[in-house]
Design goal:
Helix content: 55-70%
Structural class: mainly alpha
Shape: globular
Largest sheet: 2 strands, antiparallel
InterPro entries: Aromatic_CoA_ox/epox (IPR052703), Ferritin-like (IPR012347), Ferritin-like_SF (IPR009078), PaaA (IPR011881), PaaA_PaaC (IPR007814)
Strand order of the largest sheet: 1-2
Distance between the termini: 62 Å
Order of helices and strands: HHHHHHHHHHHEEHHH
Number of helices: 14
Strand content: under 5%
Radius of gyration: 22 Å
Bound molecules: benzoyl coenzyme A
Pfam families: PaaA_PaaC
Protein name: 1,2-phenylacetyl-CoA epoxidase subunit PaaA
Length: about 325
């Protein structure tokens, strides 16, 4: 599949003949499915693309804690609260694995966080929507984590070793997240008519933003062709989006909910669902920082970072003290 993506991409992707020997050897390793490791030679563009994608991914995990964090104190039971807390903590862990994977490419944590806090670096559009009811916790787990799994399972096989390995654990945890989300939806749909209506309302608000998570259409995606050639991307944005729709519509039907798309229909021949046009103006607005919660999300992250300064200073002071007492012990011996 990725060869097809490379060919259809708008950018010119250089053939092996057009490459310098070092780059050709690199590309051949990638083509053979050999993992690239941190200390291997790599083209500067490959390094930059990975830093961009992995750091955006890390920022998404960290900012992604905020919409769900909004409901920790209002979870309907102790059990639901513990599950939600565990999920949010997992997202923090995912952010940390991913920042570590990005650091292997020669960028510092401070630089990465600086990009997020200045608004220069992107994070997933999905986290710029508000969480208005408890049903949103169900919709996020089911649709957002569900989409994340579809996008991230292929990343476990991507060409960069540290990213691929980080993804293995992330995907295992995402499966639990998607299950807990669907379980919330199931409970609401089997509840009172008002609870079922809450679930429908959450689906109505999260459906289209979840489809946008996969990025612009293949025709508009600027990075896909090169990322496919480097085997960072194994499937196109549209292919993964289609997979999400095909997988999720039957789940919505099982819940007795209606997907908010009048154009949605199963193509009997292909056995794929055809769906309506995504509102790309809304997507592009969010990418420009003008979504419903963009400013609030950034403000919250910057404040959390500033408030944690004393703690980071204490950790560094403690580490310095440990180092100097170790050195003194060695001198005395
Ligand atoms: N939101 O050429 P394209 C999670 C940007 S975490 C914002 O197709 P690419 C979770 C794109 O960056 C979910 N920006 O780019 C966490 C590019 O801009 P730049 C995060 C988007 O990189 C907590 C431009 O649009 N997952 O699930 O080939 C709780 C053109 O796009 C978006 C990942 O990060 C978007 N939705 O493909 C619960 C997965 N889409 O950078 C759940 C790893 C596109 O050129 N990332 N853009 O200025 C990827 O797979 C790819 O980076 C993307 C985009 C498919 C997202």
């Amino acid at each position: 599949m990725y060869a097809q993506l490379v060919e259809t991409g708008s950018k010119h992707i250089r053939s092996l003949d057009e490459m310098a020997p070092e780059e050709r050897a690199f590309q051949q390793r990638v083509d053979e499915g050999i993992k690239i490791e941190a200390k291997d030679w790599m083209p500067e563009g490959y390094r930059k693309t990975l830093i961009r994608q992995i750091s955006q991914h890390a920022h998404s995990e960290i900012v992604g804690q905020l919409p769900e964090g909004n409901w920790v104190t209002r979870a309907p039971s102790l059990k639901r609260k513990s599950i939600l807390l565990a999920k949010i903590q997992d997202e923090a862990g995912h952010g940390l694995y991913l920042y570590s994977a990005a650091e292997t490419l020669g960028v510092s944590r401070d630089e990465l966080l600086g990009g997020l806090h200045s608004g220069k670096a992107k994070y997933s559009s999905i986290f710029n929507y508000p969480t208005l009811s408890w049903a949103d916790m169900g919709a996020i787990g089911w649709l957002v984590d569900g989409s994340a799994i579809i996008n991230q399972v292929p990343l476990c096989r991507c060409s960069y070793g540290p990213y691929a390995r980080a993804m293995v654990r992330v995907c295992k945890e995402e499966s639990f997240h998607a299950r807990q989300g669907y379980d919330i939806m199931l409970a609401l749909c089997n509840g009172t008519p008002q609870q079922k209506q809450m679930a429908q309302d959450a689906l109505n608000r999260w459906w289209w933003p979840s489809l946008m998570m996969f990025g612009p259409s293949d025709a508009e995606s600027v990075n896909s062709a090169q990322s496919a050639a480097w085997r960072i991307k194994l499937f196109s944005n549209d292919e993964l989006r289609q997979k999400m729709v095909d997988q999720t519509v039957p789940q919505a039907q099982f819940l007795g909910l209606t997907v908010p798309d009048p154009d949605l229909k199963l193509n009997e021949e292909t056995q794929h669902y055809e769906f309506g046009e995504i509102d790309w103006t809304e997507f592009n607005n969010i990418l420009k920082g003008n979504g419903p919660c963009n400013r609030d999300r950034l403000r919250t992250r910057v404040k959390a970072y500033d408030d944690g300064e004393w703690f980071r200073d204490a950790l560094v002071a403690h580490a310095d003290k440990q180092e100097s007492s170790k050195a003194q012990t060695q001198l005395a011996a």
